[in-house]
């Protein structure tokens, strides 16, 4: 008996030595190779707050809801269900940008993390005829990835273009199940992006402005009812409300307000800075003037949001000869009207 115990102790000691000998290597390995641990996956609430404030312009409601929802969820060690956010709004108002900011403050590699999965229907599920195949692929993908990392993030872009069958196939994962086939999905995050409800958000924002109130005074309650009604009644989104919204599986509807001229200017200034140029307000004003505004009579909101800013900026920038040792700020900015050459 004593001999057996000694033998076991011997094995244990050897095993310990072996593990300790390799430990530094496993630490080095996990330092370079992304893994599902706190080195690579760690929520930074202050970082998210700062990024939303400094990078997402004109979206006080969305910023507030996102910060609260994500912070509450990430700080809860035992969530009841995965976090489901549904981001709505007119084109170019920052829905993808907001998803990126969330990812940047959870995953060290941000959107490049292998735990962040972005689906675009036209790209990933292009053929309606193959929907059954996509369904099983998508389910396998979600199951496999959540098994590998509980804190996985799934972003579904253009949700209003997703086939209803595919949306149905996501439903079990976002529901209140303890486990499905031995896998818990409760720490995963699902973000749905769509333009559904964009018109109603715009109308509410416009009415608010017409009544002489400050945009920043707009509260979620002001937008929520009109938004949910319009999402329910929209023929494109009508199919997915039945499965996800009706069952209360969406935790937060996040409205993205239409952007005004002043926000477009902020976007232009930020874009110049991001390119290493010194931001020039004159260029920003001219750029913002060059895009179209709506709705028809009021012309108060940017039709493309901030979407065309990056490409339009190219028309305003002329790269002059850069001395080899100079910084990118030697780029000279010229006032060319968009579309004109030279
Ligand atoms: N509110 C914003 N603040 C700062 N930049 C913004 C904002 N909205 C859009 N942008 C910029 O405009 C471009 C397009 O934004 P984004 O892709 O996030 O729009 P979207 O809401 O997803 O639009 P769509 O509905 O057409 O997909 C990006 O370069 C983004 O950085
Ligand atoms: Mg988008």
UniProtKB/TrEMBL annotation:
It is found in: Endoplasmic reticulum lumen. Residues 259-316 form the Torsin-1A C-terminal domain. GO terms for cellular component: endoplasmic reticulum lumen; nuclear envelope. Gene3D superfamilies: P-loop containing nucleotide triphosphate hydrolases. ATP binds at residues 89-96. Its main location: endoplasmic reticulum. Keywords: ATP-binding, Endoplasmic reticulum, Glycoprotein, Nucleotide-binding, Signal. The keyword Signal applies. Pfam families: TOR1A_C, Torsin. SUPFAM superfamilies: P-loop containing nucleoside triphosphate hydrolases (SSF52540). One of its GO terms (molecular function) is ATP binding. InterPro entries: ClpA/B, P-loop_NTPase, TOR1A_C, Torsin, Torsin_1/2. GO terms for biological process: nuclear membrane organization; protein localization to nucleus. Belongs to the ClpA/ClpB family. Torsin subfamily. This is Torsin.
């Amino acid at each position: 008996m004593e001999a057996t115990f000694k033998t076991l102790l011997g094995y244990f000691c050897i095993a310990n030595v072996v593990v300790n000998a390799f430990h530094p290597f496993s630490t080095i390995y996990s330092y370079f190779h992304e893994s599902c641990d706190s080195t690579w996956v760690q929520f930074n609430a202050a970082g998210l707050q700062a990024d939303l404030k400094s990078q997402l312009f004109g979206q006080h409601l969305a910023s507030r809801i996102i910060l609260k929802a994500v912070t509450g969820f990430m700080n809860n060690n035992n969530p009841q269900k995965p976090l489901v956010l549904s981001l709505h709004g007119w084109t170019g108002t920052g829905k993808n940008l907001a998803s990126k900011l969330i990812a940047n403050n959870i995953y060290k590699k941000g959107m490049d993390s292998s735990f962040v999965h972005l689906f675009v229907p036209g790209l990933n599920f292009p053929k309606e005829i193959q929907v059954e195949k996509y369904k099983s692929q998508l389910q396998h993908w979600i199951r496999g990835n959540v098994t590998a990392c509980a804190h996985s993030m799934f972003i579904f872009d253009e949700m209003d273009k997703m086939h209803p069958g595919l949306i149905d196939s996501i439903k079990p994962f976002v529901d209140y199940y303890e486990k499905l086939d031995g896998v818990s999905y409760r720490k995963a995050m699902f973000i749905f992006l769509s333009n559904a409800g964009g018109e109603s958000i715009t109308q509410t924002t416009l009415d608010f402005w017409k009544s002489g109130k400050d945009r920043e005074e707009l509260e979620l309650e002001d937008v929520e009812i009109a938004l949910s009604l319009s999402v329910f009644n929209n023929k494109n989104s009508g199919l997915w409300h039945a499965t996800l919204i009706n069952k209360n599986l969406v935790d937060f509807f996040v409205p993205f307000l239409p952007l005004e001229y002043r926000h477009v200017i902020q976007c232009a200034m930020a874009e110049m800075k991001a390119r290493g140029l010194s931001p020039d307000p004159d260029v920003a004003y001219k750029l913002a003037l060059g895009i179209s505004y709506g709705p028809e009579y009021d012309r108060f909101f940017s039709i493309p949001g901030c979407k065309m800013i990056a490409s339009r900026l190219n028309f305003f920038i002329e790269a002059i000869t850069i001395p080899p040792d100079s910084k990118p700020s030697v780029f000279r900015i010229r006032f060319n009207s968009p579309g004109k050459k030279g």
